[in-house]
Design goal:
This protein has 501 residues and is α/β, with parallel strands linked by helices. The protein contains 20 helices and 18 strands. It is elongated.
Length: 501
């Protein structure tokens, strides 16, 4: 009840806005449940962190504000403190690791924060911020382990219940240090205790889950950095106490699932969440599937959208795997002319997302194949089909090395690729297009290199190495012209000569 009073009297709306609670129609239809998004990504600093920071700072005395505040952060909390300080006309020193991207540093400076770059990690920055407190008498504004910060975040729970007064089965929130879920749970469990609170963490940053299971705070030696907003090695004392007491269940999701959730939210809202902001959506999807929920109302707190633009390439590539719409295989086939066409015949009309091959051995070849699938069961069925046809296969769908690196590195120079010519083709992308391309090619031409990636565009791009006798070059030119698609001879390209020729 003490937290209920603190949340009801929290001073957040001088700087924060009451964010909308929006239904996600496409994702709701797919899940068979009503999924609502609490749009904290629409705050002035694109994150919920503003609420807790301002509530803490607004409660300081005039003398304390006069001495200034300090915090350690490389992201959303830093911006929340900086904006709050500008509103309250007090000095804010933000200690950030020297590795912080310049985009975030400039964002904090743009809000009026005094940035101090110190140390290689958040831990280094945190210790330096505490030293500045001792040296200058600053007030430390903790990112999560402070009752006033927790109460500020709890206003999100208050808004959810005011905005949706009907039945709610569960509310999902990402957990880093635990401030968000502690505040939301404190309010909801006091007012609507029948609503479940589900915490979501990444598989490589699950300090809260381990702590709750152990009955004490458990520090992690390392944390994953993809969801940097939740990459916390040790949760707070107060947030641990509240989470252990009030949160009903937990879900862990991997980076692929987070990428798929970012895509899901984009398709419903045309907004792009940061990885931490999408964890709640990924968790809701997984929880609904695990418990076979149907017709329930679920709320996911979209807690942030401070996404670095250069990460979008990774997100787009991994979303299909995270949604279990792409299966990756290493397929071993005998090395003979026409084998790629035979393999495509086995694959059938399904969409090919990637097809990499480089000649390397006179007896057998190893292909990296990506295929569009409906679910994980279809992936297993395809693997069995390859094996039944005499093609040994390794399912790489869950292999991080394969997804992150090997798929881009298949190839290299080959002593078998003598008299090779390299061609680049471009043609309209549609199911079966790759098979039609291979079927039109004379079977006597040996393919020594093949690289194809379907990136969701209207046009497919294929790189092909062919061992064509000089006497067959006129025939090849007729073949290329008959396709009616752009074809570029890259045999003399210096990049090819350097890396593949």
């Amino acid at each position: 009840m003490d937290y209920l009073k603190k949340i009801l009297t929290a001073r957040v709306y001088d700087v924060a806005v009451e964010t909308p609670l929006e239904r996600a129609p496409k994702l709701s239809a797919r899940l068979g449940n009503d999924l609502w998004l609490k749009r904290e990504d629409e705050q002035p600093v694109f994150s919920f962190k503003l609420r807790g920071a301002y509530n803490k700072m607004a409660g300081l005395s005039a003398e304390e504000r006069g001495r200034g505040v300090v915090c350690a952060s490389a992201g959303n909390h830093a911006q929340g403190v900086a904006l709050s300080a500008r509103k309250l006309a007090c000095r804010a020193t933000i200690v950030m690791p020297v590795t912080t991207p310049s985009l975030k540093v400039e964002a904090v400076r743009g809000l009026g924060g005094e940035v101090v770059l110190h140390g290689e990690s958040y831990s280094d920055a945190h210790l330096h911020a505490l030293e500045l407190c001792e040296l200058h008498g600053y007030t430390f504004v903790h990112p999560f382990d402070d009752p006033d910060v927790i109460a500020g975040q709890g206003t999100i729970g208050m808004e959810i219940l005011r905005q949706h007064q009907g039945p709610i089965h569960a509310v999902f929130a990402a957990i880093g240090g635990g401030g968000l879920i502690s505040g939301v749970a404190a309010y909801i469990k006091a007012v609507r205790p029948e609503i479940k609170l589900i915490g979501v963490q990444t598989t490589d940053s699950d300090a809260m889950i381990r702590s709750v299971r152990a009955g004490e705070r458990v520090p992690l030696s390392d944390v994953g950095l993809f969801s940097d907003g939740t990459a916390v090695k040790l949760v707070g004392e107060e947030t641990f106490r509240l989470t252990r007491e009030l949160v009903d269940d937990f879900v862990t999701v991997d980076a692929d699932a987070a990428c798929a959730a970012i895509k899901d939210v984009f398709e419903d809202t045309r907004s792009i969440l940061e990885p931490a902001g999408a964890l709640s959506v990924a968790g809701a999807k997984q929880y609904a599937a695990r418990h076979k929920l149907q017709g329930e109302t679920l709320v996911a707190i979209a807690c942030g959208a401070n996404m670095n633009f250069d990460r979008l390439r990774f997100v787009a590539e991994r979303a299909e795997v995270g949604e279990e719409r792409e299966a990756l295989f290493a397929v071993t086939v005998p090395e003979r002319p026409g084998i790629l066409r035979d393999l495509c015949t086995l694959i059938g009309p399904r969409s090919v997302t990637e097809f990499n091959y480089r000649i390397s051995d006179p007896k057998e070849a190893h292909l990296f194949v990506g295929l569009a699938v409906g679910d994980r069961d279809e992936s297993a069925s395809l693997a069995r089909r390859f094996i039944d046809e005499g093609f040994p296969v390794v399912d790489l769908t869950g292999d991080e090395l394969a997804k992150g690196h090997i798929r881009h590195l298949v190839g290299g120079r080959s002593p078998q690729a003598h008299h090779e010519r390299l061609y680049r083709f471009e043609f309209p992308e549609r199911p079966g297009a790759l098979m039609r391309f291979l079927a039109a090619m004379p079977p006597t031409w040996n393919i020594s290199l093949f690289h194809y990636r379907n990136q969701g565009a209207d046009y497919a791009r294929i790189l092909v190495g062919l061992q064509i006798p000089d006497a067959d070059l006129p025939t090849f030119h007729d073949f290329a012209e008959g396709l009616g698609y752009p074809c570029v001879d890259e045999t003399e390209n210096p990049v090819y000569r350097l890396f593949l020729g």
